[in-house]
Amino acid sequence: MSDHIPMRVAVVGATGFQGGAVARLLADRNHRVRTLSRRPEGDRPPLPGVACASGDLGSAEDVRALFEGATHAAVVLPLVYDRERVLRYAQHIAAAARSAGVRRIVYNANTRVPRTTTGVAAFETRRIAEDVLRESGVPLVVLRPPVYLDNLFSPWNGPALVNEGVLAYPLPERTRTAWLSHQDLAEAVYAALTVDGVAGRTFDIGGERGLTGQELAAAFARSLGRPVRYVPLDPEVFEQGLARVLGADAAAGVAGLYHHLAAGHDPLLMDDDGGTSARLLSLKPAPVEDWVARRPWQVWAEEAEGGDR
User: Fold this and answer.
1) CA nearest 172: which of 130, 132, 131, 216?
2) Which residues, 6+ apart, have CB-to-CB distance to 301 below 8 Å?
3) How far apart are CA 203 and CA 107, in angstroms?
4) Does 53 map to a domain?
5) Is 163 within the bounds of a domain?
6) Mean pLDDT to the nearest integer, 20-42
7) Locate the NmrA-like domain: which residues (predicted)?
8) Alpha carbons 26 and 306: distance in angstroms, whole number
9) At residue 202, what are phi and psi to the nearest 5 degrees?
């Protein structure tokens, strides 16, 4: 599809980090973007060029209104891991996309999904949504990213990384992970919306190569010009901290995949796919060092200094 033909894209999840990156990229490239949010208008993140209506994925009518007139859709679900709620959300999206005559849905599962069922809600609810969207009959592209680099540029990681040289994350040190940035995710979604010949495919997208924890720390050290060491964080500790921000249910859902990997299951789940996805989608994810170099890490040092006074 030509970039010169504007798409009308229904972006599910645009008020979140990953969906927001997609919505901003689409708007920057002069495509018409609409989304839906339960948040009050004053509590939504700024999304220039994106029309945002009040509504809920649990309402079939709200979702149908979002998709009216849309030619394409980009979907990432909220941090909900209740099977029945996710099933209902996916059914509403599928019905609305089919009714609107959407030409292609790109579904970001927001995680890799193991080949076999696991009993882990973080994986299985995303598998359920994928199945429902595939059964809709609307051409579908599925993206399964690993872990986001942007998780590391946060109040939970930034200060320790900048001030102590400690990069702590709830992945075993030996788990090779193809870390991906939100920006490269957005580029992948855009490619999946526009590249010919990819409908019906599932892509384990990721960074240029899988890195162990120590290799990730070494990439940070090279870019920051200072020693950095990787410390595997106990998933239970991670979950407890996340619960204070997201609530217990969402934290348990997110942490489920880290518990799964810490137990030694699927050691290659988060690794790169040998460049297959990048090649087919004509992508070139940025090296970790480049991503690190573009972040204003000094904000965490400044916050720490301010807190000491």
Assistant:
1) 216
2) 159, 162, 163
3) 10
4) yes
5) no
6) 91
7) 8-242
8) 37
9) -120, 130
DSSP 267: T
Alpha helices by DSSP H, listed for 197-234, are 213-224
Q: Label the pairing between strands 72-75 and 50-54.
A: unpaired
* 261 C-beta neighbours (distance < 10 Å), count: 22
Question: At residue 82, what are phi and psi to the nearest 5 degrees?
Answer: -80, 125
What tokens does 247 get?
């609530």
Residue 170's alpha-carbon distances to 32, 173, 241, in angstroms, are 38, 9, 12
Q: Identify which of 93, 193, 97, 102 has the alpha carbon closest to the alpha carbon of residue 143.
A: 193
Containing H/E element for 230? strand 229-232
Neighbours of 5 (CB within 10 A): 9
Q: Which domain holds residue 94?
A: 8-146+181-206+275-281
Is residue 247 in a domain?
Answer: no
Helical spans, DSSP H, in the chain: 17-28, 60-67, 83-100, 121-135, 158-164, 182-194, 213-224, 235-246, 248-262, 276-280, 288-293, 298-308
Say if 307 falls within a structural domain.
Answer: no
Count of domains observed in the chain? 1
Residues facing residue 166 across a β-bridge: 229
CATH code, domain with 104: 3.40.50.720
* Cβ density class 213-248: b for 16+ within 10 Å, e for less: bebbbbbbbebbeeebebebbebeebbeebbeebee
How far are the Cα atoms of 100, 105, 236 from residue 133, in angstroms, in the given order?
Answer: 14, 8, 33
CA angle 130, 135, 140 (to 5 degrees): 60
Q: What is the pLDDT of residue 254?
A: 96
Question: What average pLDDT does range 154-162 have in this prediction?
Answer: 92
Q: Mean of the pLDDT values across residues 236-242?
A: 95
- What is the value of pTM for the model shown? 0.94
When the pLDDT of each residue in the chain is averaged and rounded to a whole number, the result is 94
The answer to whether residues 140 and 134 touch, using CB atoms and an 8 Å cutoff, is yes
The string of pLDDT tens digits covering residues 250-296 is 999 999 999 999 999 999 999 999 999 999 999 999 999 999 999 99
Q: How many CB atoms lie within 10 A of CB 136?
A: 19
